[in-house]
Design goal:
With about 475 residues, the protein is mainly β. The protein has four helices and 36 strands. It folds into three domains: about 270 residues, Sandwich (Jelly Rolls); about 80 residues, Immunoglobulin-like; about 110 residues, Sandwich (Immunoglobulin-like), CATH 2.60.40. It is elongated and about 125 Å long. The two termini are about 50 Å apart.
Length: about 475
């Protein structure tokens, strides 16, 4: 993935800026590109402080502000008649850009596949600083936990930057000590994010996720943001629960998205149309097991769906997503996955490209466990030893060739009384001196990769004159079971 498409991804230019400053820069750039008149910016984010009787102006300025002389800017922001005078009970709104802050702790809590932090291989527990850029390759994913407990999941082929993740310690007017207010800002350059924003009371600004053409702000909800088609310049937002504000900076428009809805942000269109998301598809008819060589997982039928999103993970929480596929066909081939149990979730995609609610099913991908004998022959030599030869066929219909075979010969169909066991490196075995009677045989083939394939149970009838007047049998093995 080449990050050069997004010149604004320059941590040294963004880390020192407050969230509003970042938004203002992005807003100006997009308005210029859209060739529309620049509108007045929205009010700068601020936090309120109620003056206590013991407060002194100089002490407040020294304890709360990035520099004491910034009090003049606070006074102008609040339109104070006399910046040198404050009184108990007075509420003062302090812009975030003037407040002291501490970088909040952000760390990687899950990785799968190839994940990079600033070009270095990312590992669980690694700290993510402000300005840190995370990149996931194909079939890879990661989860970052921000300082407020919010979790941001990067899907495969995603590039994102933690622009700001900080806490503002505000003195509490009603109690001793201070209260920390959090602010977080993520820039998504390419790909898709799934976000679970922590529901906290003291949030300085909504958790914001910015794409090249949209800005999404939330205070506590579960939602997705994607910018995975740079050619169209469209960004999309889908809200699972809670409420999200999705803005189109180029058009100075936006809309509130309640849970169960989504919107596509097109920088060339002013209207942000809120659309109901597709329900979760019914996966009851989707098989829970796929045995190779059959690895095609059929897609469900869902009214309104023009395609499907299929995500495969090794864990039930989908923290380790190893496949993220958009499927426009009747099935998706999972042949590239290892033989294991995989948690699979499927959601429908509507005509606008909005993705609906998830349905989850545990799918087991298995190696073939059966093969069958297609032809066999039994002969007895002068020494009375019976020799069995055969040809085999895999479940796929392909000829079976294995480096090692084994077999059990029993007197009963249930193999409660095994008479002999045999091994061979060829599709033939000497079964010894067989007396007249009925026997039961089952064969095993050990493949080069170590997997063992079994046959069903075959009946082997040895006639009374075997080795006396009858020395050959062209069809000795008769299948009686496929278990």
């Amino acid at each position: 993935m080449n990050p050069s498409f997004l010149p604004s991804f320059k941590p040294k230019q963004t880390v020192a800026l407050a969230p509003w400053s970042l938004f203002a820069l992005f807003f100006v750039a997009n308005v210029a590109l859209a060739q529309t008149p620049q509108a007045a910016p929205p009010p700068e984010p601020s936090l309120p402080y109620v003056v206590k009787p013991s407060d002194k102006l100089i002490r407040l300025a020294r304890e709360l502000l990035v520099r004491p002389e910034a009090w003049a800017e606070v006074a102008r922001f609040n339109k104070m008649k006399d910046p040198n005078f404050i009184k108990p009970g007075q509420q003062i709104n302090i812009p975030l850009s003037l407040l002291k802050f501490e970088p909040a702790s952000a760390r990687i809590i899950s990785t799968a596949g190839d994940v990079r932090l600033g070009g270095t291989a990312a590992t669980v527990g690694m700290a993510v600083p402000e300005g840190g850029r995370l990149q996931t390759a194909a079939n890879s994913s990661a989860i970052v936990e921000l300082g407020d407990g919010s979790r941001v999941k990067l899907l495969p082929n995603t590039l994102a930057e933690v622009v700001s993740n900080r806490g503002y310690a505000m003195r509490d007017a009603s109690a001793s000590g201070s209260t920390t207010w959090f602010s977080g800002f993520i820039r998504l350059g390419l790909g898709a994010l799934e976000t679970l924003a922590a529901r906290i009371q003291h949030r300085a600004t909504p958790l914001q996720i910015e794409t090249p053409t949209s800005l999404v702000g939330v205070r506590g909800t579960q939602f997705r943001v994607a910018f995975d088609d740079p050619a169209s310049k469209n960004a999309r937002t889908e809200v699972m629960e809670g409420k999200v504000r999705a803005d189109n900076p180029a058009q100075q428009s936006g809309a509130d998205l309640p849970g169960g809805t989504g919107a596509v942000i097109n920088p060339a269109e002013r209207e942000v149309r809120v659309v109901k998301l597709l329900p979760a598809p019914d996966l009851a008819a989707v098989p829970a097991e796929l045995t190779r060589p059959v690895t095609a997982l059929p897609m469900p039928t869902l009214a309104g769906a023009t395609a499907y999103r299929v995500q495969v993970a090794s864990d039930e929480q989908f923290a380790r997503i190893v496949r993220d596929l958009k499927v426009t066909t009747a099935s998706v081939d999972l042949a590239s996955l290892d033989n294991a149990r995989w948690y699979t979730r499927v959601r429908g995609i509507d005509a606008q490209g909005l993705e609906g609610f998830d349905a989850v099913k545990l799918i087991t991908l298995k190696a073939p466990t059966r093969w069958r004998v297609t032809s066999s022959a039994l002969s007895v030599g002068p020494n009375g030893q019976s020799r069995l030869t055969w040809t085999g066929e895999q479940a796929s219909g392909q000829p079976l060739a294995a480096p090692r075979y084994s077999a059990e010969l029993a007197s009963d169909e249930g193999f409660g009384n095994v008479l002999s066991r045999f091994e061979s490196t060829e599709p033939q075995m000497t079964l010894g001196e067989l007396k007249p009677g009925v026997y039961y045989l089952r064969l095993h083939a050990t493949l080069a990769d170590g997997h063992t394939l079994d046959t069903g149970v075959y009946r082997l009838d040895i006639s009374a004159n075997w080795g006396v007047t009858v020395f050959d049998n062209g069809f000795p093995l008769v299948p009686i079971a496929t278990r």
